[in-house]
Amino acid sequence: MIRILGKSSSINVRKVLWLCVELGISLDQEEWGSGHRSTQEPEFLALNPNAMVPVLLDGPLVLWESNTICRYLAARHDRQDLLPAAPAERALVEQWMDWQATELNNAWRYAFMGLVRHSPEHKDPVQLAGSMANWHRHMRILEDQLSRTGAFAAGAQLSLADIVLGLSTHRWMSAPMERPELPAVRAYYERLCERPGFRLHGANGMP
């Protein structure tokens, strides 16, 4: 059986858990991370020198980076609806996955740490305001894309792009801050909430 190492509250672990519901597969999850077994243990560092969750183990294969894990699982189960085989269609899905990891995540990091995690190192009001403004700016980019597709990030049907963006959207919707009204994003969130896997691992009360 596939093993996933990572605590259930991690946003990056949750995207993998949601995907497994969509794929209809089970896995053996082990809780690693703050509050559980330390990712600084030599056993974990031998698998992922970054000391980050999740880590996927499939026989001899060891994978880290949650979006890569999602790509692997979709391809392993030949789910071309989630990760198309055609180069152009696949590139559109992966474009939004990469944007989530490199652009959107960096925008919200300071605000999330200050507002949700209450980190004393993330309380500067100027930096907080700047991070929130940047977070909203990036969500407006998603708003424009969803207004064009009328449904999901890369088109008319759910894809891996929505697995990763759905968790980020939930984080934006649940953060204790004022948000601009983005009707396409709100409709998107409600659409995702119709999916059992998202309700279980995405919109489950965890930020």
From TrEMBL:
GO terms for molecular function: transferase activity. Signal peptide: none annotated. SUPFAM superfamilies: GST C-terminal domain-like, Thioredoxin-like. Keywords: Transferase. Pfam families: GST_C_2, GST_N. CDD domains: GST_C_2, GST_N_2. InterPro entries: Glutathione-S-Trfase_C-like, Glutathione-S-Trfase_C_sf, Glutathione_S-Trfase, Glutathione_S-Trfase_N, Thioredoxin-like_sf. PROSITE patterns: GST_CTER, GST_NTER. Residues 1-81 form the GST N-terminal domain. Residues 86-207 form the GST C-terminal domain. Belongs to the GST superfamily. This is Glutathione S-transferase domain.
